[in-house]
Design brief:
The protein has about 675 residues and is of the alpha+beta class. The protein contains 19 helices and 15 strands. The strands form 4 sheets. The protein has a 6-stranded antiparallel β-sheet with strand order 2-1-8-5-6-7, with helices on one face. It has a 5-stranded mixed β-sheet with strand order 10-12-13-15-14, covered by helices on one side. Helix 1 packs across helix 6. It is rod-shaped and about 175 Å long.
Length: about 675
């Protein structure tokens, strides 16, 4: 039960809005139609809400009867004609609601109602029986109106577009012809139905009264329904979306044709019902038809407006041409991308040629027949051709743009961006390529993530092992030191202790290297950055290792500028880098060879290099030598952990520089770059 009520909310809210607009629109358009139809006369709008005898409708009806009698009195040719019979029949149908007396002493014609054998004239006005206090009187010169014995100002009756008081010049240009005519019309105060004929007075009074009450009822109901629709406006908007979904499936051309048809019908109805008659029954028919046409016009364009607001671009894009293009693209979708592009170009040329030929044919028909319709059709075909060309160029521009996005995405992947995805709509020609590229990117991202995870696990393992080894090693070093201090030990025992001291110190250095490398690799290392003279740092490192350099028998050729070379970095970490590089050269350089250390300025950077000749055949690549625990001396006859270069590279990159290794035969070279500080 609740579900049904909940589902009915959008429908009931929109139905309330629909009925409210129809009711209030009917009142508005009816009032507007009455105002326009009566040529700007507001009296017709007031008629349903005032006494009938005070309304303009009543006075126009009286003026019509009076004019009919005056026509008969002036024109003798109308005697005993169908016109006379019609006039008398209409007057007699009023029964007791109307008494009349008309006479022309010149031609002897006289007409009078049964209740008015004689209507005596008292001075300048007729004497009417009781119950008749309103009358029109023509005394041969002017038309006078009396109400309750007082003469009414007739100018007020002619204030509207229609003249109620008949213009005497219409009947004759000779006032003498009117001098012997007397006409009296008296209307009963309380109108009653005539059982023997249709009293227009009584009928109009009933209709106008019903119209007044109907307007009040419709207006009240419309306002209540509108208030309800406003309260339930969210439900009403939900139904609007359903309307928009329905109208979205209609082609734009169909919407335009229906709009033109509705506009033409509205114009035709308005033109055909326009007239000069202000009869109340004709007026009701006119305003009813006009209001219905205007409401149909309003609701149709309301649906179009909702369609435009909700569907936006789809309102225009869903047309016959786009539908044909979409069907064609489904057809071309089974071909490879290259063939699809070529077929699309061929299809464009074919379509443009067919449209151009058809347009020319219609132009020739237009010139041959002299009709404008074929020319309009030719213009529409030309417009269709221009639109097809525009759609092709638009699609071509989109394809080129998406190709550019694809190239940019490749550049991002090349630079290491594995997160940014290329999202293209499914209708795009490059959609499949973009999806494939995204899949490749995801695969590479997963591979990199797995590699990083493996590296992180390796670093964590090294860190944990280093920490676990350091505690017992510290104890071993302490006990070895205590043994060294013992006296009276045999010589061979002292030799054993010396070997233990040497190996434990080496193991301690190895563990420290592992610990430092793991900290640097995990980015969990604190930097103390400052302004550093790079050349001075290299010289200081060489000075600290001077004793080892002399013992090695190697010749160092150092080329460092005399002026300072300032960089922004961590001096302690860079000292460790050069200590490792120089120690590496001392271990693996050919005996008696030279080691070259250079520092040069390269634009906005400084380049420091160290080169040495290896004492063994280098059968490895630079990628292999940079791996951890890899030593150039495969026989491992020299002391070393295989971590020196790895630590140097890691510390250099952490400090903001770049580290590169190159191998040329037996020549081993390391290059370090740092940006210069701005001075």
């Amino acid at each position: 039960m609740d579900t049904k009520l909940r589902r009915s909310k959008p429908w009931t809210a929109w139905l309330s809005f629909f009925m409210a607009v129809n009711l209030l629109g009917l009142l508005f358009f009816s009032s507007l139609g009455a105002f326009v139809y009566s040529r700007g006369n507001f009296d017709y709008l007031k008629a349903p809400f005032q006494k009938y005898q005070e309304s303009r409708v009543f006075k126009e009806r009286t003026g019509e009867y009076f004019s009919s009698l005056l026509s008969l009195m002036v024109n003798p040719d109308l005697r005993n004609t169908a016109y006379q019979q019609t006039v008398q029949e209409r007057l007699n149908n009023e029964g007791g609601n109307l008494i009349y007396y008309a006479v022309n002493t010149d031609n002897g014609l006289s007409l009078q109602s049964e209740k008015a054998p004689d209507l005596p004239i008292y001075g300048t006005k007729p004497l009417l029986p009781d119950g008749y206090h309103y009358c029109w009187y023509f005394d041969g010169e002017t038309v006078k109106i009396f109400e309750n014995g007082q003469q009414v100002n007739t100018r007020r009756l002619d204030s509207g577009y229609y003249s109620i008081i008949p213009n005497l010049r219409i009947y004759t240009d000779d006032p003498e012809e009117l001098a012997n005519i007397r006409i009296v019309l008296g209307i009963k105060d309380s109108l009653q139905a005539n059982p023997y004929g249709r009293s227009l007075y009584y009928l109009e009074q009933q209709v106008i009264s019903a119209v007044g009450w109907t307007c009040i009822a419709l207006g009240s109901a419309g306002i209540l329904l509108l208030v309800y629709a406003i309260i339930r406006r969210e439900d009403k908007r939900q139904f609007d979306r359903k309307l928009a979904s329905w109208s979205r499936g209609m082609w734009l051309e169909i919407k335009l044709l229906l709009s033109l048809f509705i506009l033409s019908v509205l114009a035709m109805v308005t033109f055909n019902i326009s007239g000069s008659s202000s009869d109340i029954f004709s007026l009701m028919i006119v305003v009813t038809i006009t209001s219905a046409a205007l409401l149909i016009f309003f609701w149709w364009f309301y649906i179009l407006l909702v369609d435009l607001i909700i569907n936006r671009g789809e309102f225009f894009s869903h047309n016959i041409i786009n539908t044909l293009i979409m069907n064609y693209r489904r057809y071309e979708g089974k071909y490879p991308w290259q063939q699809k592009m070529l077929k699309r170009a061929y299809a464009l040329v074919t379509a443009e040629a067919v449209l151009a030929f058809t347009a020319v044919c219609f132009v020739l028909v237009a010139f041959g027949s002299g009709s404008i319709a074929p020319l309009l059709i030719a213009l529409l075909i030309t417009a269709a051709g221009v639109y097809v060309l525009y759609r092709y160029l638009q699609g071509f521009n989109q394809t080129v743009t998406e190709l550019g996005l694809l190239v940019d995405q490749l550049e991002l992947i090349k630079s290491g961006d594995m997160e940014t995805r290329l999202e293209l709509p499914e209708s795009s020609d490059m959609y499949r390529a973009a999806q494939n590229l995204n899949s490749i990117q995801e695969g590479m991202s997963r591979a990199v993530a797995e590699k990083l995870k493996s590296e992180r696990l390796k670093v964590d393992l090294i860190t944990n092992v280093s920490h676990d080894l350091k505690t017992p090693l510290t104890s071993i070093i302490s006990y070895v030191d205590l043994l060294n201090k013992e006296e009276d030990l045999p010589q061979h025992v002292k030799d054993y202790i010396a070997i233990l001291a040497q190996k434990s110190e080496r193991l301690n250095n190895l563990i420290q290297d592992l610990f430092d490398l793991s900290k640097a690799s995990s980015a969990n290392i604190a930097l103390e950055e400052e302004q550093i003279d790079f050349g001075r740092l290299i010289n200081q490192t060489l000075a600290d290792l001077e004793e080892q350099i002399k013992e090695s028998g190697l010749t160092f050729r150092v080329n460092i500028p005399n002026e300072p070379v300032y960089i922004w970095s961590d001096g302690k970490k860079l000292y460790r880098v050069w200590e490792n590089l120089i120690a590496n050269a001392l271990k693996y350089s050919l005996t008696g060879s030279r080691v070259y250390i250079d520092l040069v300025l390269d634009g906005k950077e400084c380049l420091a290099t160290i080169k040495n000749t290896a004492n063994y055949e280098m059968t490895f690549t630079k990628e292999e030598i940079m791996q951890r625990f890899v030593r150039g001396d495969e026989s491992r006859s020299t002391e070393g952990s295989g971590l020196g270069l790895s630590i140097a590279q890691t510390f250099t990159e952490v400090c903001g520089g770049s580290f590169d290794v190159s191998i040329d035969g037996d020549l081993f070279k390391v290059a370090i770059r740092f940006p210069l500080m701005r001075t």
